[in-house]
Amino acid sequence: MIDFSTGKYLAAILVCHSILSILFFSRFRIISLLNPFVTAQVVLMSIFGLRPLVMRYPTDFEFYGLDSLTGFNRAVAAGLIASLSLSIGFFFAKPYVREVSEKEFYLKKDIVMRARMISIILMILWVILMIVIGGTNVLTLLSQGRSEALNLSFVGVPVLLQALPASSFIIFSVSLLVLGRSERISTANSIELVTLFVLTATPSALVGDRRIIVPMTISLLFVVFQNRRDLRLGVFGFLGFLVIGLILIIYPFVRSSGARAGVNLPTATYQFFQENGLVEVVHNFLVKNDTEMFNFVSFLMAQMGNEFKFGYGRGTIIDIFREALPSSLSASHTWSDMILTKMFGGGCGSGLCPVPSLVGVLFYDMGFLGVVVGFILVGFFARKYDALLSSSSGLKLISAFTFGGYCAVIVRGSSIAMIWIALNVIIVSYLGHKLVFGKIDPDHKSVMKQ
């Protein structure tokens, strides 16, 4: 019989470390709670800390008929290593020396107007292209939730097109970020931002696609609170975060058209919460598909190095390049598909498609060393995140803002696919950003330390 006590003990350490490191860094400041360091720690704590602690029954350990018991203790250890490496990368990174373009502080306010126009144009373009590719009823299908008919409508739709709504939002958000460096964002601009968020997030919200909703929500909150950096999380703020979290947890259970019983998404979400209650909703999150990445990693722990070979770069760097190629042009399957084929007899497009989390991707590519190096780099980026958003421009600013929002879904989900989606959002956003700002060629730069 397998002894899980070591794993449970390590999981408790992970939870304590994540909570303490988050509190030490954020001190309950709302703007700090939106940092990639915090969102990544929350994801790791949920998957590799809280889930192992509440796993008790045989159904909690089920993983599509595969063994997720043998590697339990090592899977928790991998999560703990990731959490500690994240903290090492964050707290030991050198202070960021930033170059501030003085001209950016004196750009005319018409950047907001131009950003608004480009964002609206992109959304109109997205609607037109979706109707052209998916048919005239594609918007109706979207409003009804996930269905087979909707999936067929999205066949062949490039990721670049799917990135248009998120890019539309980011272009306008970045214009307010830059404007907010020299003055407080007006109430009218904040209302515009929230309105644009609703418009651009709605397509993803209707089908419960958290790959877009989560990054956009984090980005929205960062822009809203950028001029209130010392504002701390109070009772109402905590309740607000709790409501947002519960909605995101419930989405997978009500996003399909069959699960809504003919009602709209907000009503279905409320009814699900009413029927199950807070405790059951949170328990479902911790023992079902939302955190099943733990079971995936637990399975890998018993297999890698034996029947399953390590990727040594093929599961990370090479797979990112393969994501850019149409399947018809790709000479071979991605490394993640090869892993899934060994597990289930087919890749992600052929049926079962569980996701391994960033811990799993780094482990099946380069073992524990990959987990350490990968999360140190994530921590390093998180340390620079706030300074990059408050001082950088152009592609650097767009990339930092986008990856900061996407960090949580990259750490949690199919990491390489999420990185590829984020890169598409960056491409479209940067092109729009260039139209908004033009070419900034500062006369001089001042140097400050973060």
H/I helix tally: 19
Shape: globular
Could you say which structural class the secondary elements and strand pairing correspond to? mainly alpha
Strand order of the largest sheet: 1-2
How many E strands? Answer: 2
In this structure, how is the largest beta sheet organized?
2 strands, antiparallel
Distance between the termini: 52 Å
Helix content: 55-70%
Rg calc = 22 Å
Strand content: under 5%
SSE run: HHHHEHHHHHHHHHHHHHHHE
Unreliable stretches: 100-106, 440-450
Mean pLDDT: 84
Give structural notes.
The chain has 450 residues and is an all-alpha fold. Helices cover 68% and strands 2% of the residues. It has a two-stranded antiparallel ribbon with strand order 1-2. Helix 18 packs antiparallel against helix 19.
